[in-house]
Write the C-alpha cells for this entry.
Amino acid sequence: MIRLPHRTAWAALLGLCLLAPAAFAAGPQAAASKAPPPPAWEQLSPQQREQLIAPVRDRWNAEPDERQRMLDHARRWQQMTPDERKRARHGMRRWEGMNPEQREEARALFGRMRNLSEADREALRERWRAMTPEQRREWMQNNAPKPRDRDDDRERRGPKDAPRQQR
C-alpha cells in the first residue's frame, strides 16, 4: 500500500509537470506585453529613425511616377482625424485580407456608392447583405467598373492585387 506522503509528492510532481509548460510558454509573452512602448520620435536614435525612413526613401527613389501620389496621400493622411485614421487602417487591413474576387466586389460597390446619398448607400448595403452569392455575381456583371477605367488606373498606379514587395 502506498503511503499518503508519497501520493502527495507524486500529485505535486504531476501538477508541476502539467503546469510547467504553460508557465514557461506564458513567461516571455507576458514579459513582452508589459514592456514599455517605444519612445517618442524625438527620443529615437539616429539609427532607429533611419530604419523607419529608409523604406519610404527607397520607394520614393525607385518609383518617380508615384511621387505625386505619395505626397497627396501624406497630405490627406495628415488632415485626417484620429478616428478617420483608425477607420482607414481598419479598411487597409480588410483589403489586404481579401482575395481578388472580393476586391473586385469592393471596387464595384465603392464605384457605385461613390455618388449615392447616405440613405441610398445604406439601402445598397442592406440589399448586398441580403443577396445570395449568385445574385451578387449577377449584380457585379451589371455594375462592375468599366474595364477601360480599370486598365487606365492600373497603368497609372500598378496592379492593386499584386502583393506588395519588400523594399
Q: What stands out?
A: Residues 1-24, 148-154, 159-167 have pLDDT under 50 and may be disordered. The first helix runs from residue 4 to 33.
